Amino acid sequence: MTRPESTALADEPSISPQTGRPLTKRGEATRRKLLEAAEVVFAEAGYHEASIVKITERAGIGLGTFYLYFDSKQAIFEDLVTDLNRRVRHAMAEEMAGATNRLAAERAGFAGFFRFTAEHPALYRVVREAEFVSPETLRLHYTRIVEGYESGLRAAQAAGEVDDALDPAVSAWALMGMGELIGMRFLLWERDATGEPPAQMPTEIFDAMMQFIDNALAARPERNG
């Protein structure tokens, strides 16, 4: 995947819903505990069966404290989608930091994406539930990824690294969809003999996917020359 725009990776200070002020370091740590607990609870129970009580119990934080950081169950759900989005883009960008060309960047970005989703399978369920719980947040999740992806493809076309006959917007959405569905099939659904999911994307699946992407994106001298 293409490296997301650096501005999209910047952390914005969290604001307390009660005071309207930025959180302290201690407050940020408490908020992080709540988000980590919410990630597990929403993934295991689903949005409608999840509750603030279950989240605070898992986080080991008092029920009253929850409302210093979030107004409602929907508020923490939406913040969780945003947080997962930020972290998966950061994982992709870190992997892509040393890429020297577009195809190398694609390989590195997808490696970062699959590594993150193997460690955080909740991403799939939480994002899909957002379609019904908070459609605006779902759209924000995908568009934040695609915006950087599309601009990267355009830059690669200008540099002669990607076929300039491709539509960057369509290509960005297609590649993102491919990564999500292949991750779902071979990370989320796959189980070993003990019933555990794989710790990483199988090498042969990853290589086959990248061969497909390389063939799809590679510059065509007869058209680009």
Question: Can you say what the CATH homologous superfamily is?
Answer: Tetracycline Repressor, domain 2
Radius of gyration from CA coordinates: 19 Å
Give a quick account of the main beta sheet: strands, pairing sense, barrel closure: none
Counted up, domains total 1
- State the end-to-end CA separation: 25 Å
Please estimate the helix content. Answer: 55-70%
Number of strands: 0
- Mean pLDDT, to the nearest integer, reads 89
The helix/strand series, from N terminus to C terminus, equals HHHHHHHHHH
Question: Overall 3D geometry?
Answer: globular
**Helix segment tally:** 10
- CATH top level is Mainly Alpha
Helix-and-strand structural type: mainly alpha
Give a description of the structure.
It is a single chain. The protein is 67% helix and 0% strand. The chain has 225 residues and is mostly helical. It has a single domain (6-224), classed as Tetracycline Repressor, domain 2, CATH 1.10.357. Helix 1 (25-45) crosses helix 6, helix 5 packs parallel to helix 8 and helix 6 (122-133) packs across helix 7.
Briefly, what is this?
This protein is mostly helical and 225 residues long. Helices cover 67% and strands 0% of the residues.
Q: What labels describe this entry?
A:
mainly alpha; 225 residues
Secondary structure elements and their pairing?
Blueprint: H1 25-45, H2 52-59, H3 63-66, H4 73-96, H5 102-119, H6 122-133, H7 135-158, H8 168-188, H9 203-217, H10 221-224
